[in-house]
Specification:
- It comes from Rheinheimera sp. BAL341.
- It holds the Pfam family NERD.
- This is NERD domain-containing protein.
- Keywords: Membrane, Signal, Transmembrane, Transmembrane helix.
- By secondary structure, this protein is an alpha/beta fold.
- Among the domains are: about 40 residues, no CATH class; about 160 residues, no CATH class.
- Helix content is about 50%, strand content about 15%.
- It contains 10 helices and 9 strands.
- A 5-stranded mixed beta sheet has the order 1-2-3-7-9, sandwiched between helices. A 4-stranded mixed beta sheet has the order 6-5-4-8.
- α2 packs antiparallel against α3.
- The longest helix has about 60 residues.
- The radius of gyration is 62 Å and the shape is elongated.
- The protein starts with a helix and ends with a helix.
């Protein structure tokens, strides 16, 4: 026990020095150990020696880090339920290799392409051709439908359309060739002698006479004479008879005389004109008052002898304007007389 006599005083001498050094926290000591491990390959370097010295002097009894309770402020507490706990629990498979193998889907083998059938090859080759002929067939059907509709319209309203075209052609001639002081009326419906109504295609009122014009828009050869009740129009082998336009217009002139109150010698101031289109060709000597549409203006301008005074012209104009104003009603009555 002799050695204890020297050891105990030595411990008493060293203990104040050991316990007198300031001790670092555990975290600081860990950092010093990390620095020593980082420079372990250079034990003579300043960094290693400094870290070792600090560790030896101040990490003999490191101070543990204080444990503080974690307090959450301004965060509402969320109750823990059994279902939420179950949802957060994850299980790892016992064998990770088996789990990875189960997660990877098996490779998909490519299916061999089916060989094209002969029918499919033929349909692919002839598809553009069929589409082309299908478009042509659709256009032909549409064109045929349009022709059928036009034929139906012309068959029902062809005569009216032809007559309207002829009257419009005469209207342009009269407007361009007659003086502006002449009064021109179209499609007047006026009462006739027997109580019925008649329609006048064109009427021109001038100081030199009243001109009642009947328009015929026929195409082909015209056969007839001044006193024949029926005339004939022929185009190729097709023939069609129509009423003598001179007789037809005679009724119109008589109705105009009655409307204007012209009797006796004054009745000679009403002139009858029959105008044909240029598509007609006369096969008989034409009377003086039967002519083509283009010559009507020149024919009227030949009359230069005044036969009406201004007062008579105003009276005639007033009566004709009254007939023009009631044209719609009178035309309806005119059509009704053909229905009975």
């Amino acid at each position: 026990m002799r050695w204890m006599r020297f050891t105990l005083p030595l411990l008493l001498l060293i203990s104040p020095l050991a316990f007198g050094q300031k001790q670092y926290t555990q975290a600081a000591c860990l950092l010093l150990q990390h620095q020593m491990a980082q420079f372990a390959h250079q034990p003579n370097s300043h960094n290693y020696q400094s870290a070792k010295r600090e560790l030896d002097n101040h990490c003999q009894n490191p101070i543990p880090a204080p444990v503080k309770d974690l307090v959450l402020t301004n965060i509402p507490a969320k109750p823990v339920t059994v279902s939420s706990v179950k949802n957060t629990v994850t299980t790892q498979p016992a064998n990770s290799a088996v789990a990875v193998k189960a997660a990877v889907p098996p490779p998909v083998k490519p299916t061999p392409a089916a060989s094209p059938k002969p029918a499919d090859v033929l349909s692919a080759l002839f598809a553009p051709v069929l589409a082309f002929f299908g478009g042509i067939l659709a256009m032909l059907l549409l064109f045929t439908a349009i022709l059928v509709i036009l034929a139906l319209v012309l068959g029902r309203y062809g005569a009216r359309i032809k007559g309207a075209l002829g009257e419009w052609a005469l209207h342009r001639v009269l407007v361009s060739e007659l003086p502006a002081s002449y009064q021109h009326y179209r499609n007047l419906v006026i009462p006739a002698e027997k109580g019925d109504f008649t329609e006048v295609d064109h009427l021109v009122l001038s100081p030199f006479g009243v001109f009642v014009i009947e328009v015929k828009n026929y195409r082909g050869w015209i056969f007839g004479a001044e006193k024949q009740p029926q005339w004939t129009v022929q185009r190729f082998r097709s023939k069609h008879q129509f009423m003598n336009p001179l007789h037809q217009n005679y009724k119109h002139t008589e109705a105009v005389k009655q409307l204007l109150g012209l009797t006796g010698k004054d009745s000679d101031t009403v002139h009858s004109i029959v105008a044909f289109s240029l598509r007609a060709e006369f096969k008989f000597p034409m009377p003086q008052n039967v002519m083509y549409i283009d010559l009507v203006g020149d024919y009227i301008n030949r009359f230069t002898q005044p036969c009406f005074c201004d007062e008579q012209l105003r009276q005639f104009s007033a009566r004709l304007n009254m007939a023009k104003a009631g044209k719609k009603v009178l035309r309806k009555l005119h059509k009704q007389q053909f229905d009975y």
